[in-house]
């Protein structure tokens, strides 16, 4: 995920020197876009302990205009710092069973409405495939790692503000649900470039 972190810094630096936009024309919020985002996430459900973490990732999308509507595909790759441990005395004295949320791949669609010249409100839905890791720690030679990938769906809603014709900031809530009833809530902020 080092490339994501470098992209985040580059886009944030560009946004810091942006000049506020004037009124957008009829082609605002259209075309290809790339962005980075980060924020709070909480995983729970299924057999997992659950817990909070920081999610960060990169998005790629394309928006097509249909009057005041904007429709298009969206793709994302993200990772998370979320990790929770619980005691596992049945395995060994002092052993811990630790669960972690790892990479998350998303592909879906977004539909938005231009509510003001510089404001787009939107909803999204799509497919997500996430990896969840497990590790037994402090169990001596029997320390083990395991991971499995789970498929599911994501829905969300948010708003995008055009700082300039090519630079935007965004805020978004989303909910993801995977097999075994594992679910995740997220609140994210982002910054990106349109081309």
Automatic annotation (TrEMBL):
Origin: domain of life: Bacteria
Cleaved signal peptide residues: 1-23
Stated family: Belongs to the Omp25/RopB family.
KW Signal (keyword) present: yes
Coiled coil region boundaries: none
GO cellular component, one term: membrane
Protein known as: Outer membrane immunogenic protein
Localization per Swiss-Prot or TrEMBL: Membrane
Residue ranges crossing the lipid bilayer per the database entry: none
Keyword Membrane set for record: yes
InterPro entries: Beta-barrel_OMP (IPR027385), OMP-like (IPR051692), OMP/PagP_B-barrel (IPR011250)
Domain Outer membrane protein beta-barrel: start-end pairs: 11-195
């Amino acid at each position: 995920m080092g490339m994501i972190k470098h992209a985040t810094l580059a886009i944030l630096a560009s946004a810091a020197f942006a000049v506020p936009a004037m009124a957008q024309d009829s082609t605002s919020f259209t075309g290809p876009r790339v962005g980075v985002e980060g924020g709070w996430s909480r995983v729970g459900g299924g057999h997992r302990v659950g817990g909070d973490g920081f999610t960060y990732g990169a998005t790629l999308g394309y928006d097509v205009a249909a009057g005041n509507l904007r429709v298009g595909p969206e793709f994302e790759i993200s990772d998370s710092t979320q990790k929770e441990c619980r005691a596992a005395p049945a395995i060994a004295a002092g052993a811990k069973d630790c669960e972690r949320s790892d990479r998350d791949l998303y592909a879906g669609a977004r539909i938005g409405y231009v509510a003001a010249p510089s404001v787009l409100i939107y909803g999204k839905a799509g497919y997500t495939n996430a990896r969840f890791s497990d590790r037994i720690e402090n169990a001596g030679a029997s320390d083990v790692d395991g991971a499995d990938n789970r498929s599911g769906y994501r829905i969300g809603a948010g708003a995008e503000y055009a700082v300039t014709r090519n630079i935007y900031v965004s805020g978004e809530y989303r909910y993801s649900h995977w097999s075994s009833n594992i679910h995740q809530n997220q609140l994210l902020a982002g910054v990106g470039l349109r081309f």
